[in-house]
Write a structure and sequence with these properties.
Blueprint lengths: L3 E6 L7 H14 L5 E5 L5 H5 L10 H5 L9 H4 L9 E4 L4 H12 L8 H6 L8 E5 L6 H8 L3 E6 L3 H20 L5 E2 L3 E2 L6 H12 L14 H4 L7 H4 L4 H17 L6
Parallel strand pairs: 1-4, 1-5, 2-3, 2-4, 5-6, 5-7
Bound molecules: adenosine-5'-triphosphate and magnesium ion.
The site of adenosine-5'-triphosphate has 20 residues, from helix 1 and helix 10.
Length: 266
């Protein structure tokens, strides 16, 4: 079966798209043994940082999307495996070159526009079970191309009403892409991150219930250990494997996501 491709989306910055992508990928690969590839489609490059990946010049996501004059690069050669014992590979960003690609996807038709990312990862579909694409907090060309390359989008919000609105905007964009380009795209369950027990969180949950959208459980609560892991270049589930939060929150969350994708048995 070809890989399930999922992109994590919200128009709101800082809701935890990248951190959650990193931890989901880490658990999917090491606990569930799936072959996982994560693509860093954000010029900020934090997904690459989470795994301590150092950029190889000329060998990142931007060069795949916008091949150099010397010719196409082999997507497999651009992948980096942070831990030789874990079946997880990272397609690192290319920082400023990725920002150039954001613009060129509109202005240079040969790059394939909204289909560019789909084309770039196509050779990998049979090598992996799961491909996760981390998107930037915009609904521009790179995010659209990631959604167009996906089977599923996973909306993510924190318990703040503006974040909910911005994530709903990303879902609306995905639905438009489904209508026009990618008819089989599914809007998957929502991810709740930086959660807390307060009135605004209840309002966000109430609004999601009112809209009858599926929500993955459990919510990931705000935990100091989560951002702390970044300085070691490891997602929290690897850096603090015995932490109560890492086990109690991420592992069942990932189990539910993988079950919904048909990648693990219910
Ligand atoms: N559950 C959590 N508890 C505590 N801190 C968190 C949690 N999730 C994410 N963070 C922290 O919040 C900050 C923003 O998270 P992250 O970079 O993942 O957000 P993002 O949505 O990817 O941001 P951007 O929109 O800029 O790409 C980071 O420092 C991250 O470690
Ligand atoms: Mg991010």
């Amino acid at each position: 079966m070809p890989a399930i491709v999922a992109s994590i989306v919200s128009l709101k910055g800082g809701v935890g798209k990248t951190t959650t992508t990193a931890n989901i990928a880490a658990v999917a690969a090491d606990t569930y043994g799936l072959r996982v590839m994560i693509g860093d489609a954000d010029p900020q490059g934090h997904l690459s940082d989470w795994f301590g990946i150092k950029r190889s010049p000329g060998m990142g996501f931007a060069e795949l999307l916008n091949p150099p004059d010397s010719g196409r690069i082999d997507v497999r050669a651009a992948l980096q495996q942070p831990d030789p014992e874990v079946p997880l590979w990272v397609l690192p960003t290319s920082y400023l070159e990725m920002e150039d690609v954001e613009v060129k996807l509109s202005t240079v038709p040969e790059l394939g526009g909204i289909w560019s990312m789909s084309r770039a990862i196509q050779p990998l579909l049979n090598d992996f079970d799961l491909i996760l694409l981390d998107t930037r907090p915009t609904l521009g060309n790179l995010t659209s191309a990631a959604v167009c390359a996906s089977n599923v989008v996973l909306p993510i919000t924190e318990p703040r009403l503006p974040s909910l609105q911005s994530t709903l905007a990303a879902v609306a964009k995905a639905e438009r892409i489904r209508e026009k380009q990618n008819a089989s795209l599914v809007v998957g369950g929502w991810l709740l991150n930086k959660w807390g027990d307060h009135e605004e969180a209840d309002k966000v949950k109430g609004e999601l219930q009112r809209r009858e959208v599926p929500v993955f459980q459990p919510a990931i609560y705000t935990g100091e250990y989560i951002p702390k892991a970044y300085i070691w270049g490891n997602p929290a589930v690897w850096q603090f494997p015995n932490n109560r939060g890492a086990h109690q929150d991420y592992k069942p969350l990932v189990g539910g996501i993988l079950t919904s994708f048909g990648l693990v048995a219910a």
